[in-house]
Design goal:
By secondary structure, the chain is an alpha+beta fold. It has helices spanning about 30-35, 55-75, 115, 125-130, 170-185, 205-210, 245-260, 270-285, 330, 340-355, 365-375, 405-410, 435-450; strands spanning about 10-15, 25-30, 45-50, 80-85, 90-95, 100-110, 125, 140-150, 155-160, 235-240, 295-300, 320-330, 380-385, 400-405, 415, 425-430. The strands form three sheets. Strands 7-10-16-15-13-11-12 form a seven-stranded mixed β-sheet. Strands 1-6-8-9-3-14 form a six-stranded mixed β-sheet. Helix 7 (about 245-260) packs across helix 8 (about 270-285). The longest helix has 18 residues, at about 55-75. The radius of gyration is 22 Å and the shape is globular. The two termini are about 20 Å apart.
Length: about 450
């Protein structure tokens, strides 16, 4: 069925604020880690849940709202909005005041969780887009939509969060806390650490990163939604890289290094194995006229444990630096295992540049390097397996599927832990219909090259 926005019926559009009505006005200054995210569009995640016949949907929605209100008392900055700080030329802040809250939409949608949205084959992005809410005007950073699916057999929870407020580690910490409150969990996640003074800026990186932002009193306006309009043939496909495949990639990297008689390669973690495999597959699938052009791969590195002094794991905000791998397209798209090895070596070198000795000396130019790479051709990553998105259970079971729908506009690939709990990695990628078919063939070929016989996609 061709479900679209015309099949969405909004039942209620309200605002959920913190349960503690005595929270005073508070401002949280954006750090240099935060300010570089003011321009990009928000991250839009979609959680698809199966419901049993005995579930009272009205009660579920009521519980979601009540528990969100409690969660926002702990994560109160997410109920606020970004503004230019008073009497400041370029200093932006996340500001909360009593009465602020999160837009919460309740809707119905004529789509089935199994047959239409969480099925094995790639899904039309146009079917998913109505289920993730836009951000309301005024630079709000969070919006939520709970949509009852066809016949009450499923619930779609769309969460749109602006990256300037916090990174994926923080946003999923919030989601785990909200879910635990809703489910009445016996053990709660620890509270967030809300203290932006933990991020020192002796090099003046904020001023470097904020160049080009309005500084005359006019405030920046967020892009409200990243998937509000997509072509009908745009698909979102989800592929699983099981542990067996990840082991095969690691073994292949080691064999290729030995064959080329180079020095021992850097350690190939499961995450780097997944990055390398997907980047080489993507390049093989992409019809590039200039085979010798340099192409780039961007992934984020969490610096919480690397800063001195160390930033707490539960710090609420952004603490990410970009690692940018570069290699020639023809080397990445080489047949057999050569393209995989080229991708791995480039990614390992980029990681070392971002975390190795003296890496902080290069931070002042990271925004410009990302911009230059984007002009040429950039493949990037959204999400991480360590966020445990398939563990976000509001009391009616784990998600049947989690999608980062915004990759349909950003061109990134999403990553999460495999939902079967067996240690694999799940990857989402959005391409037009013809491009998806070509990518699937390249994915199959790459699997065979490392000794796997059967493609796994969900």
């Amino acid at each position: 069925m061709g479900a679209n926005s015309n099949d969405l019926r909004v039942l209620d559009a309200g605002v959920v604020g913190p349960s503690d009505l005595d929270l005073p006005p508070r401002s949280l200054p954006l750090t240099f880690f935060d300010v570089k995210w003011l321009r990009p569009p928000p991250v839009q995640r979609l959680f698809l849940y199966r419901l049993q016949h005995n579930h009272n949907v009205d009660q579920l929605i009521s519980d979601l709202k009540a528990s969100l209100s409690k969660a926002l008392t702990l994560f109160y900055p997410l109920a606020g909005h970004v503004r230019l700080a008073p009497n400041s030329g370029n200093r932006y802040e996340l500001f909360y005041q009593p009465g602020d809250g999160v837009a919460f939409t309740v809707a119905e949608y004529d789509a089935d969780v199994e047959q239409d949205l969480a099925r094995a084959e790639p899904v039309q992005v146009a079917k998913l887009a109505p289920l993730v809410p836009p951000l309301p005007k005024g630079r709000a950073v969070l919006a939520v939509q709970a949509t009852v699916l066809l016949g009450g057999r499923g619930l779609a929870l769309g969460v749109t969060l602006h990256h300037s407020a916090c990174d994926g580690a923080s946003s999923t910490h919030f989601l785990h806390t909200w879910a635990a409150l809703c489910a009445g969990a016996a053990e709660m996640p620890p509270p967030p650490v809300i203290d932006r003074t933990l991020i020192a800026d002796p090099r003046g990186l904020y001023d470097i990163y904020s160049k080009g932002l309005p500084s005359d009193g006019s405030e920046i306006e967020f892009v409200s939604s990243s998937v509000s309009s997509v072509p009908d043939d745009q698909l979102l496909g989800t592929f699983t890289l099981p542990q067996e495949l990840l082991r095969g990639i690691k073994d292949t990297v080691a064999r290729e290094a030995a064959r080329q008689k180079n020095a021992p390669p850097p350690r190939c973690s499961s995450l780097l194995a997944a990055f390398s495999f997907m980047w080489s597959c993507y390049c093989r699938a992409k019809q590039e006229q200039n085979q010798t052009k340099t192409t780039y791969f961007l992934f984020s590195v969490d610096h919480r444990t690397r800063l001195k002094p160390r930033v707490p794991d539960r710090y609420l905000g952004n603490c990410l630096g970009p690692a940018i791998a570069a290699a020639r397209h023809d080397e990445l798209a080489a047949p057999g295992t050569e393209g995989l090895f080229a991708a791995f070596m480039a990614i390992a070198e980029a990681l070392q540049e971002e975390v190795g000795e003296g890496s902080h000396d290069r931070w002042d130019g990271c925004v410009e390097r990302v911009k230059e790479a984007a002009k040429v051709g950039l493949f990037s990553v959204a999400g991480s397996p360590r966020f445990r998105v398939y563990g976000i259970d509001f009391g009616f079971g784990p998600p049947a599927k989690v999608d980062v729908v915004s990759v349909a506009k950003t061109g990134a690939m999403s990553m999460a832990e495999a939902r079967d709990g067996h240690g694999g990695i799940e990857v989402g990628i959005s391409l037009p219909t013809s491009g998806m078919e070509h990518f699937r063939r390249c994915f199959d070929d790459a699997m065979h090259a490392v000794g796997m016989q059967e493609r796994v996609y969900i």
